[in-house]
C-alpha cells in the first residue's frame, strides 16, 4: 500500500504535495463545516492532523482506534506543524473499531494497560518505549560492530547451567512418570538423552567465541526460573554479553562504561521527542540525568568498601549488612543513589556469592567480579574477569560439587592457549528502564514473562 510515514511528513519538506498516510485514529473532532482527525502510524510520537472539509456530504466521524488511509494535500499547520487537508471521499476506512475499544480515554493506569499487551503499543507511552527499545538495540550493535567485535549467536537450549544457581527451566518432551526409577533414567529417555534447559546466559559459549575471534558479543534472550516477583525480574529477558580475550577486570569495566555512554548518547540524539515525553511524564530531570551520566566518570568501589559504607550509613535496611552477604536492591540503590549519586562499579566480591568461573584474587577470599549499579534500578550489569588457569578453575568447580564432565569444552579452553579474558552481561530491559524512567520491567518488553504469568 503506497503511503508516506508520518515521521517523514512531519519533517515538513512535502508541503503543497499530494500525500497518502495510513494509521489509527487517535482523536476525532467534528464541527460545522470541518472535522479534525489525529492519526498515528507508530513512526513518531507525534500524530498528524487531518483536516476534513466536509462540504455538503454526510460525513461520518471515525471512532478512536479505527484504521484509515487518507489522501490529501500537506499544508502548514499551526505552531510549526504540518497537517493534511482532505475531503470525506478521500478517507478510506481500512478497519472499523467498535465502541468497546479499551483505549478510548487518556490516562489509563499501567496495570490496566498491562492486561492488554496486544493493544498497549497504541498508546503514546508504549509507542515511545518500543521505539526507544529499537533505537537502543541498534546503537548497541553499532557500538560493538564499529569496535571490531564479532556478533555471535549462542545456543538457547543448553546442557550446562552457566550461573550455577539452579535457575534453569527444563526442556523436555516427556512428562512425569513413575516408570523411571532414577532421574538419570528419566533424562536418558528424554529428547537429548540427558538433562537440558533454557540458557541463563550465553557466556560460556561466548568464551568459546572470544577464544577464536578475540572480541565477540551476543544479543539474545536468557531465561531464569527465579521465583522473584519484583519490578526488575523477568523469566525471559534480553541479554547483551560481550566477551573479550586479552582483557583484565579494568578493561572489562572500561568497555562497559564506554558502551553505555555511547548508546545513551545515540538515544538522546535519535529520539528527542520520546525522551522529552518520558522526562515530562515519567521522570522529571531524566534527560539531564542521562547527560550528566555521559559527561562524568562512573564511580568505583570495592565490595569490601561498599559493605563498610553501608554499615556506617546509619540506615535501617530490611536485609542485614555484613561482609559475605549478597547486596540486595536496597543496598545497591543506597550506594548508587545516596553515596555516589551516579552509576557505580562495585568490584571484588566474596567468592562464595559469585559464580565458579570468576578469576580468583590473590587474597584467596574474593573474585575479580564487577556489578554496575545505577540510581533508580540497581544492578544493570554483571561481569568479571574469568579464571584462565585450568587448575584453579577445576578446584572452584569441585568446591561447588559441579559435574566436570558437563563442562569439558569450557575446561579445554584453559588447556589450549588460555589467555586472560573477561566480559559482562547487560540486561536490556534494565537498560530501557534506566533510560526511560519506567519503573516496572513488565512495561519495557512486549510480552513480559514473570512468575505465575504468561500470555
Ligand atoms: O549478573 P548476571 O547473572 O551475569 C551473567 O549472567 C553473566 N554470565 C554475564 C556475563 O558475564 N557475560 O546477569 C547479567 C545481567 C544483570 O546485571 C541484569 O541486568 C540482567 O542480566 N538480568 C536480568 N534482567 C531481567 N530479569 C532477570 N531475571 C535478570 N537476571 C539478570
What's this entry about, in short?
The protein is built from 13 helices and 16 strands.
CATH class of the largest domain: Alpha Beta
Question: How many strand segments?
Answer: 16
Order of helices and strands: HEEEEEEHHEEHEHEEHHHEHHEEEHHEH
| Shape label | elongated
Question: Uncertain regions: pLDDT < 50 for 5+ in a row?
Answer: none
Number of helices: 13
CATH topology-level name of the largest domain: BirA Bifunctional Protein, domain 2
Give the DSSP E fraction (strand runs of 2 or more residues). 15-25%
Task: Provide an overview of this structure.
This protein has 455 residues and is α+β, with helices and mostly antiparallel strands. The chain folds into 2 domains: 6-101, Nucleic acid-binding proteins (OB fold (Dihydrolipoamide Acetyltransferase, E2P)); 120-165 and 200-443, Bira Bifunctional Protein, Domain 2 (BirA Bifunctional Protein, domain 2). The chain has 13 helices and 16 strands. It has helices at 6-9, 110-114, 124-146, 183-188, 203-213, 249-270, 272-281, 286-295, 303-311, 329-340, 390-399, 408-415, 428-436, and strands at residues 18-30, 34-40, 48-53, 67-76, 82-86, 91-95, 150-151, 157-158, 197-198, 215-223, 236-245, 299-302, 344-350, 366-374, 378-385, 421-427. The strands form 3 sheets. The protein has an 8-stranded mixed beta sheet. α3 crosses α6 and α3 crosses α13 (428-436). The longest helix has 23 residues, at 124-146. The model has no long low-confidence stretch (mean pLDDT 95). The chain binds 4-amino-1,4-dioxobutan-2-aminium adenosine-5'-monophosphate. 4-amino-1,4-dioxobutan-2-aminium adenosine-5'-monophosphate (4AD) binds next to β11, β15, β16 and α13.
Amino acid at each position: 500500500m503506497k503511503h508516506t510515514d508520518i515521521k517523514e511528513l512531519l519533517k515538513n519538506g512535502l508541503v503543497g504535495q499530494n500525500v497518502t498516510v495510513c494509521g489509527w485514529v487517535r482523536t476525532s473532532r467534528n464541527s460545522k463545516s470541518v472535522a479534525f482527525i489525529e492519526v498515528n502510524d507508530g513512526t513518531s510520537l507525534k500524530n498528524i492532523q487531518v483536516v476534513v472539509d466536509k462540504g455538503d456530504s454526510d460525513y461520518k466521524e471515525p471512532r478512536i482506534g479505527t484504521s484509515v488511509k487518507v489522501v490529501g494535500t500537506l499544508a502548514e499547520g499551526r505552531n510549526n506543524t504540518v497537517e493534511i487537508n482532505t475531503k470525506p471521499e478521500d478517507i478510506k476506512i481500512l478497519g472499523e473499531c467498535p465502541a468497546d475499544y479499551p483505549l478510548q480515554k487518556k490516562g489509563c493506569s499501567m496495570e490496566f494497560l498491562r492486561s492488554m499487551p496486544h493493544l498497549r503499543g497504541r498508546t503514546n507511552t508504549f509507542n515511545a518505549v518500543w521505539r526507544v527499545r529499537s533505537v537502543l538495540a541498534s546503537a548497541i550493535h553499532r557500538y560493538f560492530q564499529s569496535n571490531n567485535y564479532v556478533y555471535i549467536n549462542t545456543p538457547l537450549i543448553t546442557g550446562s547451567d552457566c550461573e550455577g544457581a539452579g535457575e534453569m527451566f527444563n526442556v523436555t518432551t516427556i512428562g512425569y512418570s513413575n516408570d523411571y526409577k532414577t532421574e538419570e533414567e528419566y533424562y536418558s529417555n528424554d529428547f537429548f538423552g540427558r538433562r537440558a534447559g533454557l540458557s541463563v546466559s550465553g557466556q560460556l559459549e561466548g568464551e568459546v567465541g572470544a577464544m577464536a575471534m578475540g572480541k565477540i558479543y551476543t544479543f539474545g534472550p536468557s531465561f531464569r526460573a527465579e521465583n522473584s516477583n519484583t519490578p526488575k525480574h523477568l523469566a525471559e529477558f534480553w541479554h547483551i554479553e560481550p566477551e573479550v580475550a586479552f582483557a583484565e577486570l579494568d578493561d572489562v569495566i572500561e568497555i562497559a562504561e564506554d558502551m553505555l555512554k555511547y548508546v545513551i548518547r545515540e538515544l538522546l540524539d535519535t529520539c528527542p521527542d520520546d525522551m522529552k515525553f518520558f522526562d515530562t511524564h515519567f521522570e522529571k530531570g531524566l534527560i539531564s540525568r542521562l547527560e550528566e551520566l555521559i559527561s562524568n566518570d562512573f564511580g568505583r568501589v570495592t565490595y569490601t568498601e561498599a559493605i563498610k559504607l553501608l554499615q556506617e550509613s546509619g540506615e535501617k535496611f530490611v536485609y542485614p549488612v555484613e561482609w559475605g552477604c549478597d547486596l540486595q536492591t536496597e543496598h545497591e540503590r543506597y550506594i548508587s543513589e545516596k553515596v555516589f549519586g551516579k552509576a557505580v562499579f562495585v568490584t571484588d566480591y566474596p567468592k562464595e556469592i559469585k559464580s565458579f568461573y570468576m578469576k580468583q584474587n590473590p587474597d584467596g577470599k574474593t573474585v575479580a567480579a564487577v556489578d554496575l549499579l545505577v540510581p533508580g534500578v540497581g544492578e544493570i550489569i554483571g561481569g568479571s574477569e574469568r579464571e584462565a588457569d585450568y587448575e584453579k578453575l577445576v578446584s572452584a568447580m569441585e568446591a561447588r560439587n559441579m559435574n566436570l564432565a558437563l563442562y569439558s569444552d569450557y575446561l579445554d579452553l584453559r588447556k589450549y592457549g588460555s589467555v586472560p579474558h573477561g566480559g559482562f552481561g547487560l540486561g536490556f530491559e534494565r537498560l530501557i528502564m534506566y533510560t526511560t524512567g519506567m519503573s516496572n520491567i513488565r512495561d519495557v518488553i512486549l510480552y513480559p514473562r514473570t512468575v505465575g504469568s504468561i500470555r
